Predict the 3D structure of the following.
Amino acid sequence: MAEELKVIVFGLGNEEYGIEVDKVKTIERMSPITRVPKTPSFIKGVINLRGIVVPVLNLSGRFNLPETEATEHTRIIVVVVNDMEVGFIVDAANDVIDIDTSTIDSPPEIVGGIQAKYLDGIAKIGEDRLLIMLNLTEVLNRSELVQLEQIEV
Amino acid sequence: MDMNAYLSMFIDESNDHLQALNDNLMRLENDPEDISIVQDIFRSAHTLKGMSATMGYEDLASLTHEMENVLDLVRNNKLKMDSFIFDTLFKGLDALEKMVQDIVEGGTGKADVSAIVADLVKIVKGDYATDTSATASVTSASGKTNNSGGILDQFQSSVLKQSIESGHQVFYVKVTLTESCVLKAARSYMVFDVLENSGEIVKSEPSVEELEQEKFDRSFTVFTISQISSDEIVSKINKISEIESVEVSLLDEDSLAALSYSDTPTTKNSLSESTELTSSKAPSPVAQVDEKKNVKQGSQAAVANRTIRVDIERLDSLMNLFSEMLIDRVRLEQLASEIKRNDLSETIEHMARVSSDLQNIVLKLRMVPVDTVFNRFPRMIRDLAKSMDKKIDLVITGADTELDRTVIDEIGDPLVHLLRNSVDHGIETTSERIAAGKSETGTVHLRAFHSGNHVFIEVEEDGKGINKDKILEKAISKGIVKPEDASKLSDDEIHMLIFAAGFSTADVISDISGRGVGLDVVRTKITSLGGNVAVTSVQGKGTKFSVQLPLTLSIISAMLIKLGDEKYAVPLSSIVETAIIPKSSILSVHGNPMIKFRNAVIPLISLSNLFDSTSFNEQLEDEHEIIVIHKGEKWAAIIIDEFIGQSEIVLKSLGKYMKNISGISGATILGDGQVALIIDPNALIK
């Protein structure tokens, strides 16, 4: 008996990605972002999420993919992983689907420029639709953050 | 009955009782003759036992029960407190605390306490105490007879039984007041007074508290052990006015057994509710005074209990919701000023007033007296002093000083460190103190007080002080201080070296008598709370640690500034002055920009450079707005674009993902809903 997994589907560039729904706290429209100095460029800053300050990453930037301009479809997906609340800027978030875990294959070495360790696998939906399952723990791995510059006075 | 619903209440109340037990045991240790303290202790233990039994925590109940047996002998002057008994009771208390802690963590509260119980039983049996005859009879009270229901609980009935066995008279007294009686509580008190003058009251129905609160109809009953005859009791009670009838019956073992084991469902209640108001047998005036004091305390407790406990997380979410409302309020104010309708503006003005009152209340809700942290220290100092064989007085002042709950939660550990340090390395041994011409007993002062927007907590002792030569020597050998700089350091600067990280290694302890053990941790913690710690010391006279803490972690006064289109907040506590200076007044020292400020030359920091600002560059301006900030004695000036103004801001953390951003200590949400970052001046000054 295969297990069903409920995932949020979002678009980034030409690819479709999936995050398990129970890791997603909320999906928001773009809101004003306050830049935080001395942080890697993919950290766009922080937003006010109903009284809580949440850092926002550009997921494309995180994967060293070209960043796209914000449009009216741009969304911030706020996930909670290891007690960390982080928002991801994605090009669009438009679907919630159930996938059969048995259709998830382990990721190939290189997929669309993203290193394999950021991926949990690739899910095949229907005939020609591929969903890239993200490994959020690895995406949010702090130790991998670029060493922050020390302030020189 | 669903016990879970009562669990948190049980835990809270148990902790209260444990704390009371702790405090009172300490008091008793200082004044072992004061039987009234034993009464207090007994009452706490008794209530705790009842609560635990009701909740089904048998181990807790039975250990408390054994402790109660010992205390009972003490309060009846059958046993004298000594250090063995104190130690055993404290051990029992520790075990109880552990069990309650286990329950808090979801455990069953079970623990192996057989060693302590054996000691307690030994004390009761008198195997160890001298007065065996008095104690022997009570031993059976600790027998494992179950609470099988009845007017009397197991403990009370065994006390009465033993009294009968040892030849005392036990009476069952029923007093009925006249229908016209106005002050029923006062009359019942007078009856108690009479009975206590001639004996001892073991149990009353309804309980003493209920009698005090006049929660009874016209009659009440009392079990009493007395030396006088029943006739005498009747005549004495009849002398009190407004008494309708007095029935006194002498009980023997059989009738007592019937009462104890009759199947009335009151046991559970009486077990937890009735606090026996017993006093020593001797009808001395002292005992009477104690009694009155107890009665008074009882009524005070009733008043003090008019509070509710609230989960701190609920307060936090209240706070969050509230700050959201503030943001909406600002938005409404903006809209109203655009629409310009009088009644709308007035309503919003009123709303503004109400919400600022509300804000004050929400903030005050979070304030807790430091007492909640301080109250565990007397016991800790006692144990430390004992284990090191030193004599130490802990003097606590300002325990009612209030601090935000979040600060309170964090401050405990650093204070433990400082106090341990004072006892361990500050105060000398008794012989050393005598040799130094000091009093035998060392004193540790623990003070808390408000000062401006801060709370100070000081730990001061009259011990040997810090040996600065040794500190300096060590600092040089550890490479913390360069030898050529050593002579330039002031005494205070040398003392502060004990907070340096390198000082907390084990091999240092013996060399410099341990000063500095873990003190770097203390400093890190306190700075992370937005506080500061300083040390002053006079060799041979003592040492004082002074901890400065912000009143609250959640709201601070700040200066809001602009840097192009970005807004930042600078904590007011770090600002010395704001000014506007012409570009021409900037000096250059080794290529670094400096300015003259109050006869000193201080570095000038470009915030736009530092933060890679995209929308502001001060190079294009002829005049600079600056803020002079300080970190301790060091000053620096930062160039900003524009001042917005002073404001109270709600501190928000940047979250786990973004910790340790240099130069930024957190964030706040402004009236327009935007996030503004809070600049950390401490990081800007090296």
